[in-house]
From TrEMBL:
One of its GO terms (cellular component) is nucleus. It comes from Trichosporon asahii var. asahii (strain CBS 8904). Keywords: Protein transport, Transport. This is Mog1p/PsbP-like protein. One of its GO terms (biological process) is protein import into nucleus. The keyword Protein transport applies. It comes from the Eukaryota. Pfam families: Mog1.
Length: 215
């Protein structure tokens, strides 16, 4: 199985560095993307990688709930969701505040990573996950989901910053939808998961001014 060739992409004006396959397309070249997102699309499948900067979850919230909520936000009204990694802690692990005098002393935090399988109907915007009109008899697709969460909590000479960074990988599976030309095989999924996990481990924050100061 050949290695996937990746290249480091500057996200959010270079504030974050993240490795993406060389042939992935920046979705902002095709359509408008919200300012708090960076989206990359596979050139030969429906695989999508979404980076988001979100407000920090202040008081717990189950990590598994974040897994589901992140994908509902991307219009994946799931009929079911099954984690394929060990269950995360009942509550999101609080970020440990980094106290420094200069941003140059800060370290990119370690991510929490979960993966799972969702059953979804394509283009369904019904919260129940029901298929869209005219496709009531369509079988649901299975989508592999990878979710990485970085918790930002820093104090730079008295300037406090808090945020959550979420990176979601959405990979439709070919075997689950007969005749789906844009799904991936199990071998192709292994490639995606491999490069994505490596990219998550190597993600780097270059400019902490990306995150606004707390009031």
């Amino acid at each position: 199985m050949a290695d996937v060739q990746t290249t480091t992409r500057p996200l959010f004006g270079g504030a974050i560095s993240f490795d993406v396959p060389k042939d992935y397309i920046d979705a902002s070249d095709l359509r408008q993307v919200p300012d708090n997102q960076e989206v990359f699309l596979s050139n030969d499948s429906d695989t999508a990688i979404i980076f988001e900067i979100l407000g920090a979850v202040q008081d717990g919230g189950a990590a598994s709930d974040m897994y589901e909520a992140a994908n509902v936000a991307h219009d994946n009204a799931a009929l079911s969701a099954t984690l394929t990694t060990p269950p995360p802690p009942t509550h999101v692990v609080p970020a440990q505040t980094q106290h420094v005098q200069s941003a140059s002393e800060l370290q990119t935090p370690h991510p929490t990573v979960v993966t799972g399988i969702q059953k979804v109907h394509k283009f369904s915007h019904d919260p129940s996950g029901a298929p869209r009109r005219g496709h009531e008899n369509d079988a649901p697709d299975e989508v592999w989901i990878g979710l990485a969460l970085w918790r930002i909590d820093v104090d730079i000479a008295g300037h406090k910053k808090k945020a959550d960074i979420v990176c979601t990988a959405n990979v439709p599976l070919k075997e689950a939808a007969e005749g789906n030309p844009n799904g991936v095989t199990s071998e192709e999924l292994a490639k995606v998961e491999g490069w994505w996990r490596n990219a998550v481990a190597g993600m780097k924050i270059n400019d902490w001014n990306l995150f606004g100061d707390e009031n």
